[in-house]
Amino acid sequence: MSEPSALPELSPLEARVMGVLMEKQLTTPDYYPLSLNALVAGCNQKTSRDPVMSVSEEEAQGALDSLKDKKLVINSWGASRRVVRYSHNLPQVIGTDQGTTALIATLMLRGPQTPGELRIACERMYRFADLSSVEAYLEGMAGRANGGLAIKLPKQAGSREHRWAHLLSGAIEAATESAAPQAPAGPGTLVALQAELNELRDEVTELRNLLAQLSDQVKGER
Fold first, then answer.
1. Which helix (H) or strand (E) holds 90?
2. pTM (two decimals)
3. Which residue(s) pair with 164 in the sheet?
4. What pLDDT, in 10s, does the model give residues 168-212?
5. How far apart, in whole angstroms, are the C-alpha atoms of residue 180 and residue 200?
6. DSSP letter (8 states) at residue 113
């Protein structure tokens, strides 16, 4: 992975848009780049998003325009060349590989996560060999010479693991993160079932987004 350059600070909405573009590139490459309609649907998903947002097309377009000014988003076109589509340019701007891209996207979309949570959440974007592989990536992101991409947060009360957060929207208030209580993890079986349920919800959401993209494609070809 090449040495990354400094990255302009992103607003929460810009981070959400970037996260969706990175996620969809890795999970549904056949339907990437994304139309504005599909991007808005991804921003407004009720699952795998923290916080849940309600983003309008106008707000999403404004974020895209700002990201284009920062060289992080580029325009593309479908086969009909009637519907404009959008793709991210993060690897070219700051030098990220697929594993790092998956981690950044997950942290942008889901908020601070433990390495174990990240490994499960990234499964459809990039399959890490084991937990130590996730931790090695995170440490590398934190130790970046031109400014860290991620930071290890203080342990929350009752938690055994540190959580990590991305730094692409500015510095994290560690004291605030540390003060927030976290419910203790449930039994392993319950955790596994919850992860499976979340994955099924993600797949349903993906299908809805694909239908939205197909609708855009049909409209563009008329």
1. helix 90-94
2. 0.78
3. 113, 152
4. 999 876 434 443 444 444 544 455 555 566 666 776 776 676 677
5. 29
6. B
